[in-house]
Structures are given as structure tokens and as C-alpha cells.
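FORM 12-B: Structure-to-Sequence Request
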């Protein structure tokens, strides 16, 4: 019985499939990368120039060389809160609780990864926030910090921190002062001073109101006096007699019973007498 010959092509195909299977088994997990929502990837090429700083990878499924690596970054907004002790302009120690909203700049993920790495929160964000808060709060007195300048201080800390983080490819969205705590004695002194200032403002308001009312009454009185002088100057004896005659005639035409006597011996004006009822 003749022995069946082996087909070299089939043998080669089987060997190739076996090698491919072993390769996929060993390296398959390194070749397929899924980037979840809100994340971005930075590719490191082992044999091709290292970190790809120009082309960050977006969300979805990606094939990469088994010899390369993909670093994944969360590019959504995050918050960090820091409690710190700072000095006011008067050298008084103040406790401040400051938070920042931040996220890495997606288009600069490669540069961020190359220059700083995944631990950029600890390396640059927290130090920048602390440094800016100390710098800004140190410009103001305890009273300004506690009462009138909180919004201004918040905005200045944001600007100072943003200037630092922009250079490091991190986007700063907001800075919030969550609380500022002064020593108890200083806080009471400031509150007492503010209360006295409020009472003083109320007193000044009432005094100003009373002064304006007195001025109004004076002007009104002067106006009435001036009007009376004008009326008095215009009421001559002849005009008064004429008005008296006109008034007498109108009353005489009334349906009510009246007795009209003409010729008052004192000033010549008519006299009007009512009925006897």
C-alpha cells in the first residue's frame, strides 16, 4: 500500500496559524485598547520615537502595535480642595479652605504626559493653588478678607493660579473660597466695628433725612410768605369793594331767603343778613 504524501503548503499553513494563535494569545491584549467616555489616550512608541505629543487618542476602540503602550487620562472636570494656613498683610495667621475646578487640555495630553505625567495634580495643581492663595491673601487685611474683599480675593487667586497652570497644559475653570476662619478675638473685633459703622450710617441717614425735611419746610414757608405778600399788595380797597359787590349779587340770586342791606357805613360794602330762622 502506497504511503500518502504530506502537502508542504498545508503544513506551512497550519504552522503559521499556530504561530499566529500563540502571538495573539501573548500579545493580543496589548494590541486592542478601548478608551472610555471622558478620557483620552497618549501613545508611547517603543521603536518609533517615544511619546506621541502631537496626536492624542479620543474615545473608542483602537488597534496599536504590541510593542507600544497607551496611557489613559481622565479629561473631565475635577475638583481639588485644600485647607491651608496663610498670613494676612498684618501678619495674622488665617485658615482658608480653597477649591479649584480643573481638567487637562485634551490637545496637549501628549505634552502633559511627557513633561509631568499622570500625577500632575500633586505635582503642579496643588502647589500652584497654595502658592497663589498665599500670595493674594497676603495683600489684604483681616477685615477686608472677612467682610468686603472675598469676591475680589477669589477672582485674584483664580487669575494667579490660571497663569501658572496655562503654562503646564492644564485648564483651570473656577476657584472657590469655601471658608475663611479668623481667630475668635479678631473676628469679634471686626464684627463689633462693622456693627458700629452700620449704626453710624443709620444715624447719618436719619440726620440727613431730617435736614432735608427742615429745608423743605423752610422753602415751603418762604414760598407761602412770598405769595401772601403778592396777594396783599394786589388787594387794594377798590378791588376789595368790587369783589364784595360781585359776591353780594350772587348771593342775592340764591333761592334761600336773605335780606341784603346796601351801604355799609364803615367801608361802603354791602351787608348780607340771613333770614330770621
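FORM 12-B RESPONSE
SEQUENCE OUT:
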Amino acid at each position: 500500500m502506497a504511503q500518502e504524501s504530506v502537502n508542504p503548503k498545508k503544513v506551512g499553513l497550519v504552522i503559521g496559524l499556530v504561530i499566529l494563535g500563540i502571538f495573539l494569545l501573548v500579545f493580543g491584549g496589548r494590541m486592542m485598547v478601548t478608551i472610555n467616555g471622558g478620557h483620552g489616550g497618549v501613545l508611547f512608541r517603543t521603536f518609533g520615537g517615544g511619546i506621541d505629543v502631537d496626536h492624542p487618542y479620543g474615545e473608542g476602540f483602537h488597534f496599536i502595535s504590541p510593542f507600544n503602550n497607551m496611557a489613559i487620562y481622565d479629561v473631565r472636570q475635577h475638583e481639588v480642595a485644600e485647607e491651608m494656613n496663610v498670613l494676612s498683610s498684618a501678619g495674622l495667621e488665617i485658615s482658608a479652605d480653597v477649591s479649584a475646578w480643573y481638567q487637562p487640555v485634551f490637545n496637549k495630553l501628549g505634552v502633559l504626559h511627557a513633561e509631568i505625567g499622570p500625577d500632575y495634580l500633586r505635582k503642579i495643581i496643588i502647589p500652584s493653588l497654595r502658592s497663589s492663595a498665599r500670595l493674594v491673601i497676603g495683600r489684604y487685611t483681616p477685615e477686608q478678607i472677612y467682610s468686603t474683599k472675598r469676591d475680589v480675593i477669589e477672582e485674584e487667586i483664580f487669575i494667579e493660579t490660571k497663569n501658572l497652570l496655562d503654562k503646564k497644559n492644564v485648564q483651570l475653570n473656577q476657584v472657590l473660597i469655601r471658608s475663611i476662619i479668623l481667630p475668635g478675638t479678631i473676628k469679634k473685633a471686626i464684627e463689633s466695628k462693622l456693627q458700629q459703622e452700620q449704626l453710624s450710617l443709620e444715624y447719618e441717614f436719619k440726620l440727613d433725612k431730617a435736614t432735608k425735611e427742615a429745608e423743605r419746610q423752610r422753602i415751603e414757608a418762604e414760598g407761602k410768605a412770598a405769595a401772601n405778600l403778592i396777594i396783599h399788595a394786589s388787594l387794594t380797597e377798590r378791588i376789595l369793594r368790587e369783589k364784595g359787590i360781585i359776591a353780594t349779587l350772587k348771593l342775592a340770586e340764591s333761592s334761600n331767603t336773605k335780606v341784603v342791606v346796601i351801604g355799609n357805613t364803615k367801608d361802603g360794602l354791602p351787608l348780607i343778613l340771613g333770614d330770621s330762622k
